[in-house]
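Quick sanity check, Protease PrsW:
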Amino acid sequence: MLVFSVIASALAPGLALMTYFYLKDKYDQEPLHVVIKMFLLGFLIVIPVLILQRGMMLWLGDGPVVESLLISAGVEEVLKWFVLYHLIYNHVEFDEPYDSILYATAISLGFATVENILYAWYSQAAFGPMLIRALLPVSGHAMFGVIMGYYIGRAKFSGHETRRKFLLLSLFLPWMYHGIYDLILNVLTHSWIWFIIPLMVLLWYGGMGKITRANNRSPFRMIKREEEVKT
């Protein structure tokens, strides 16, 4: 029973947020099996992430700046971006700007869910720490995914002259925010809460704006409006 409770509490935040982002797709919802596939791929990339992080830690050391910006944020965001770009960018189902936000958050939340399960299993955390995990790292990964997906969408549906810029932003910005997040936790060990909360508010506020803008750029928006007028 204890094992079931630990796993359930670790799974719940990721699944709840995944459902939320799936329902935010206003005009042309993605096939559920593709979303689940990306969520499960987020599970699987934990393995290469751990291997690369271990190798980089032995090579570069584990100082807080290097660990936060390169070993943690760098490896995780680069691998998530790699999967998203190579599996989704030219996918037939990627036909509106919000789609890449959904798929990026699916990968990110799959990854964060495995992290949460490992944390819960090895720490045997009580409800309070698990709630903090739900509100901070899991939702943080979701917001990094929103940022990545938003700029992947901008690259896909923008002109050729701006495509490279948006692709670079789709990797650099989540990497930067993830690095700042980890750096706060690693350096400000006693006062981190006073910096993490404003950062999370900023990420959620900006993320919700990006979701709205992506939905507003959907080519299916006018079609749906015309259908609503006819009915």
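Posting the structure with no commentary besides this: The chain has one domain: 2-230.
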